[in-house]
Structures are given as structure tokens and as C-alpha cells.
């Protein structure tokens, strides 16, 4: 029987200190790895004879401005259809040098998902075949989903967070 | 027929396989299919490189109607995000609405009553029918068969009348609330649904199938066109009818049942070649299965409340707002968006019209999401389009795009 515990056991057995931060929000196994090990970890889970994580569900960027040294997060979610288990893998990279290895060598679908994440967060996927903006126009010179760009007009002083939420 | 079959790249995992160098001393012509073109059914561009009539390469430009929903959502209370999800796949808005509501309910730990879940199933399956109905009948229009489209359009109108009866809107429905439905199914709505699923729709859909399924002209246009193997489809992130046409029976309704789908008896139609004809037939089959689900749901509609007891998110009945202090307070707090959500990280997927529609939500305990990401099926599988129409002609490219059912709103978010 394959469940979250057996996956944790295998992954820790294989990678040891390279994988950490295990948690299970709403039953979905989530862990963190280093940018340099991401491809190896995903490749291991994809080609594991029992786990068979055959499908890349999603890639999304997240910005944590207060997490010094790991401001940008690239989250990927893979799914094993045979065992019906999902795993979420996170990589934190500094905003000054946001480099994450591409997953498009393992899953063709990662191509546009990574372009979208690059477009909005500026995470550079090394080895990506065609890393350019996808939804925004090409001459845009900033990454709009980062938290430093507020949605409200920054010159307004009446709409303070204490009254109007974040 | 043989020259129409798609030749797959040798290394099936090579994302670069498409960038085959073109022969230099040959002259190619460039053709813009879109951004505004009657066959794209939305605003997106394909720059085709043509060798005579054959498509050698194509480059896609998307994002023409990008509206930054994920950014806007970071500043909105949860109940106001429903209206954003309407505008993703606008052919089947209720599925998006309920998918979002279920995501928030998962975060809050709300148990929705059975009756609300059944009503949701009815509305979601109606939405799936209207989505597939448009896709398949437009495929007919794109191949030159207009009358089928006009026949079934009348039935879509009836489905929209049901939406109108249930939520007051037709296209951008904003249906339901976090915690249930905003109102119960009215007797008129039930009568309309019954008339549709037991009486009028099966006849029209059978007629539609008679018109198309064995039509020689139609089948010559779509058979063996734009085939994709199941391995490539999975690598490209296909889900929904387009994946099932390749012979993989992956359906979120079955693998991770939500909203009481486990109560219903239905089958997953699959194809085996993954060509345009299989996609057409899978959608046809799914319409019959959706009808079966609605028939079961309306026959076994449980009695009871249609919303959960969730004071912080479900608006209290208006009568109580005027007469009770608590209700007034909650009403004010909900409308002003002053409710703090619990901390959590949720992923919830529903089977949308085009495949797995996922909501990835991170809440940091604030009033709005810290991060909300929509996993939009058409955005992910549309990247396979150049590979699918390589070596084919323009008319094939048009039917492939039509049968993929790429919805611009979902593509661009």
C-alpha cells in the first residue's frame, strides 16, 4: 500500500538531507528541496517502479518577501494516477538570483507552466527551451505578481489595510 | 489518409522536439491564423510557417485577454473571487464557481448538506452539457455543417433559462455561495430541468448524432486528423475529454470524487486514437453520461437544508438581517470582507468542461488569499497544438483547434 509515509520513507532514504520541511496540509504531502536537487527528486519519483508519478499537474510561483534568502518559491505538483497520490514539491530561491532547473526535460507540459511563472515572478528556469513571457507583453520590465506591486493605487492614503483588509 | 497521420518525434520526452530546423534553401510562407479569425473562437494568434499547403511549424501567441485574475484575487474577499472564476471557462461557468466554493469549503472544513451537493451536481452537469454541446456543434460549423449547431443551440438556450431560474444570470453565473446554494431549486426550475433531461434534450441530441456520427463528409474531414498518442498527451498535461479520446480513463469525478459524485452511476467514454473524431465522439458520449447523472440526481434529490451552517461565509437570510442582531453583524462583516480566513494551503480539483480545473490556494490568515493559482486545463494542453497540426493543412488546423475546445478566457486567465 502506497501512502504518504512510504513516499517520505523512500525519498528520505534516497536523498537524506536534501529533502526537508515535510508537511501534510489537507492530506497532500508537501516537502522542500534545494534548487540543485529538484530535477533529480522529480525524476526519481517519476521513474520509481511503484510510485509512478506520471503527471505534472501544476507549477506555480509564490513570493514571500520576508523569507530572506528564499523569497521566491517555485511549487510543482505531481500526481501518480495509478496510486492516486499527489505530491507537492517546493523550491525556495533568493530573489537576487532566482534560478531553478527546468522540468520540461521530464514533462513537456512544464514548458508553458514555467513560462507563466517566469512571466509573473521572474523565476529563471535554467535549461528551459524557450523562456520568454507568455501572457504579458514582451517589453514589460517587471514581474507583476510579486508582492511589491500593490493592486490598489499606491498614491491613495485613505484605503489603509487596517480598515480594508490586505 | 496515410499522409495525414501525425509522425511523432522519436524521443517522446524531448520538449525541444518541435524545433526541427527547416531546410534553408526552401521558401516558406508565413500565415497568421488569428488573433482575430472566425475559426479561433477567441483571441489568440498562431503564426504558421507553411510549405505550400502544409504546416511546417507554428508559433502561438497567447495572452490577448489576460486580465490578471490571480493578482486581483489577492485583494478580494473570498466571496468576490467567484465572479472572477465565471470568466475563466465562460462556456461552463457553474463548474468554475462550485470548484472555487469547494476549495474554500475545504479550507474552512465546512460540510455541505447533501441537497446542496446534489443541486451542484445537477448544475455542473448541465454546464458540462452546454460546454460539450457548443464544442461539438461548432466543430460542425467549422467543417461547413451549420444546421446541427442551430438545432442544439435551442437546447443550450433552455439550459441558460435554468441557470437564470437558479441564479438570475445566464453566462457569468456567479452561482451558489460558500457553504451551499444561495437559494433552493424552485418548482419552476425543477420542472424545467425535468423537461430538459427526460423529454426534449435526448431527442435533439440523438438527432444531432444522427446528423454527424456517420456522415461521410464530416468523418472524412475529422478522422485521423490531429491524432496524439496517450504518452504524448500525458506528457503535455492533457486532461478531460481530450485525454480520454486517447484512451486514458482519467476523470477527476471518479478518481477524487467531490460533491457526492460517488453516489451516481455513470461511465467514462474513451476513444482509442486521440484524433479529432475521437474527441468529438468522447464529448458526445459524455453528454449522454451527464444526462444520466442529472436524471439520477433529480430523481433522488434529498430533502433538507440547501446550505451549511456557516455564519462567517454564508450570508444570513435577509429576513433575519432585519430582525436579529447577530445576522446583521455577520451580514455586515461578510459584505465588507472583514472575515479572517484560517491559515492553510489547499489544492482542490474539479472536472471542468476541458479537464482538471484546479485551485491552488494559500491563505496566511488574512481576509484575502495570499496566493491563488488556477490550474487551467486549456492553457496547459494548448501548447501541444503545433505538434498536433504539424504536416497537416489549414483546414485540419482549424478543426483540431475547434475540437480541442480552447477557451480564450481560460487560456489567458
How would you describe the overall organization of this protein?
The complex is a heterodimer of chains A (166) and B (413). Chain A is of the alpha/beta class and 166 residues long. Chain A has a single domain, classed as NADH:ubiquinone oxidoreductase Nqo5 subunit (Beta Polymerase, domain 2). Chain A has 4 helices and 7 strands; from the N terminus they run αββαββββαβα. A 5-stranded mixed β-sheet of chain A has the order 1-2-5-4-3, covered by helices on one side. In chain A, strand 4 and strand 5 form a beta hairpin. Chain A is globular. Chain B is mostly helical. Chain B has one domain: Cytochrome-c3 Hydrogenase, chain B, CATH 1.10.645.10. Chain B contains 17 helices and 6 strands. A 3-stranded antiparallel β-sheet of chain B has the order 1-2-3. In chain B, a hairpin with a 2-residue loop joins strand 2 and strand 3. In chain B, helix 4 runs antiparallel to helix 11. Chain B is globular. The two termini of chain B are 38 Å apart. The N terminus of chain B is likely disordered. Chains A and B meet through strand 3 and helix 3 of A and helix 1, helix 8, strand 4, strand 5 and strand 6 of B.
Amino acid at each position: 500500500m502506497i501512502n504518504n509515509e512510504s513516499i517520505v520513507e523512500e525519498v528520505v532514504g534516497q536523498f537524506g538531507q536534501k529533502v526537508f520541511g515535510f508537511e501534510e496540509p489537507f492530506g497532500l504531502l508537501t516537502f522542500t528541496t534545494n534548487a540543485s536537487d529538484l530535477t533529480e527528486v522529480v525524476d526519481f519519483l517519476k521513474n520509481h517502479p511503484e510510485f509512478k508519478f506520471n503527471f505534472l499537474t501544476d507549477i506555480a510561483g509564490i513570493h514571500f518577501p520576508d523569507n530572506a534568502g528564499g523569497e521566491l518559491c517555485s511549487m510543482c505538483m505531481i500526481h501518480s494516477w495509478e496510486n492516486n497520490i499527489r505530491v507537492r514539491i517546493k523550491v525556495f530561491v533568493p530573489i537576487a538570483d532566482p534560478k531553478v532547473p527546468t522540468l520540461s526535460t521530464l514533462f513537456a507540459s512544464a514548458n508553458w507552466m514555467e513560462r507563466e511563472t517566469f512571466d509573473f515572478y521572474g523565476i529563471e528556469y535554467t535549461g528551459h527551451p524557450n523562456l520568454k513571457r507568455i501572457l504579458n507583453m514582451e517589453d514589460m520590465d517587471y514581474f507583476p505578481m510579486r508582492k511589491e506591486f500593490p493592486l490598489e493605487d499606491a498614491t491613495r492614503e485613505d484605503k489603509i489595510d487596517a480598515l480594508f483588509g490586505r | 489518409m496515410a499522409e495525414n497521420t501525425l509522425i511523432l518525434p522519436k524521443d517522446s520526452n524531448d520538449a525541444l522536439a518541435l524545433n526541427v530546423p527547416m531546410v534553408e534553401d526552401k521558401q516558406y510562407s508565413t500565415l497568421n491564423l488569428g488573433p482575430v479569425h472566425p475559426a479561433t473562437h477567441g483571441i489568440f494568434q498562431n503564426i504558421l510557417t507553411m510549405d505550400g499547403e502544409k504546416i511546417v511549424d507554428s508559433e502561438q501567441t497567447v495572452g490577448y485577454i489576460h486580465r490578471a485574475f490571480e493578482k486581483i484575487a489577492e485583494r478580494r474577499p473570498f466571496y468576490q473571487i467567484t465572479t472572477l472564476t465565471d470568466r475563466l471557462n465562460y462556456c461552463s461557468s457553474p463548474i468554475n464557481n462550485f470548484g472555487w466554493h469547494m476549495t474554500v469549503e475545504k479550507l474552512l472544513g465546512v460540510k455541505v448538506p447533501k441537497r446542496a451537493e446534489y443541486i451542484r451536481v445537477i448544475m455542473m452537469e448541465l454546464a458540462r452539457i452546454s460546454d460539450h454541446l457548443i464544442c461539438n456543434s461548432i466543430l460542425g460549423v467549422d467543417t461547413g455543417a451549420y444546421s446541427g449547431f442551430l438545432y442544439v443551440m435551442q437546447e443550450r438556450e433552455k439550459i441558460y433559462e435554468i441557470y437564470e431560474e437558479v441564479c438570475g444570470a445566464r453566462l457569468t453565473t456567479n452561482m451558489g455561495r460558500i457553504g451551499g446554494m444561495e437559494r433552493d431549486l424552485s418548482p419552476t426550475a425543477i420542472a424545467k430541468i425535468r423537461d430538459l433531461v427526460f423529454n426534449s434534450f435526448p431527442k435533439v441530441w440523438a438527432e444531432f448524432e444522427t446528423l454527424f456520427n456517420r456522415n461521410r463528409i464530416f468523418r472524412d474531414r475529422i478522422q485521423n486528423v490531429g491524432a496524439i498518442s496517450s504518452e504524448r498527451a500525458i506528457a503535455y498535461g492533457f486532461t478531460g475529454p481530450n485525454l480520454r479520446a486517447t484512451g486514458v480513463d482519467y476523470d477527476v469525478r471518479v478518481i477524487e470524487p467531490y460533491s457526492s459524485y460517488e453516489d451516481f452511476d455513470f461511465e467514462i467514454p474513451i476513444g482509442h486514437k486521440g484524433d479529432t473524431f475521437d474527441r468529438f465522439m468522447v464529448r458526445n458520449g459524455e453528454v449522454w453520461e451527464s444526462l444520466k447523472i442529472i436524471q439520477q440526481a433529480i430523481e433522488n434529490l434529498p430533502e433538507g437544508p440547501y446550505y451549511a451552517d456557516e455564519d462567517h461565509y454564508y450570508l444570513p437570510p435577509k429576513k433575519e438581517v432585519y430582525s436579529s442582531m447577530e445576522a446583521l453583524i455577520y451580514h455586515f462583516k461578510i459584505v465588507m470582507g472583514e472575515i479572517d480566513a484560517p491559515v492553510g494551503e489547499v489544492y482542490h480539483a474539479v472536472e471542468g468542461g476541458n479537464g482538471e480545473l484546479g485551485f491552488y490556494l494559500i491563505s496566511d490568515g488574512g481576509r484575502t488569499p495570499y496566493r491563488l493559482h488556477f490550474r487551467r486545463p486549456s492553457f496547459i494542453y494548448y501548447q501541444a497544438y503545433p505538434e498536433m497540426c504539424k504536416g497537416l493543412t489549414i483546414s485540419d488546423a482549424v478543426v483540431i483547434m475547434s475540437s480541442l475546445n480552447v477557451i480564450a478566457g481560460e487560456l489567458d486567465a
